[in-house]
Design a protein that fits this description.
By secondary structure, this protein is of the alpha+beta class. It contains 2 helices and 4 strands. It starts with 12 loop residues before the first helix and ends in a 17-residue tail after the last strand.
Length: about 80
C-alpha cells in the first residue's frame, strides 16, 4: 500500500463510501491509487484530486460527476455511466 494514501477524514461522506467500500463504484480507482507509486491523491474541498507525476488528471466528487482533466489510464477505471449517484 502506498504511504501517501490520502486521509479520508475531510472527504465527503458519499465519496468516502464510493471509494473505500468494496462494492463502491470508485473502489478500483482507490486500489490503483494505493498500488501505483506514480499516482498521488489529495483531498481538497471534500473532493479527491488525483495526480500522475505531479499533473492533475482526475477529480472525484461525492454526488457530482467525476471531472476528467487529462487522458490517463486511471480514467478508464471510471464507470461507463458518468452520471454516478
Amino acid at each position: 500500500m502506498n504511504r501517501d494514501c490520502p486521509d479520508t477524514v475531510n472527504m465527503c461522506s458519499h465519496l468516502r463510501r464510493k471509494l473505500t467500500d468494496a462494492d463502491g463504484v470508485y473502489h478500483s480507482i482507490w486500489q490503483t491509487i494505493n498500488d501505483d507509486p506514480q499516482l498521488t491523491a489529495v483531498v481538497r474541498s471534500r473532493q479527491l484530486h488525483i495526480y500522475r507525476n505531479g499533473r492533475k488528471v482526475l477529480v472525484l466528487k461525492g454526488r457530482a460527476a467525476p471531472q476528467i482533466l487529462r487522458d490517463d489510464p486511471v480514467c478508464a477505471l471510471l464507470p461507463q455511466n458518468n452520471n454516478v449517484k
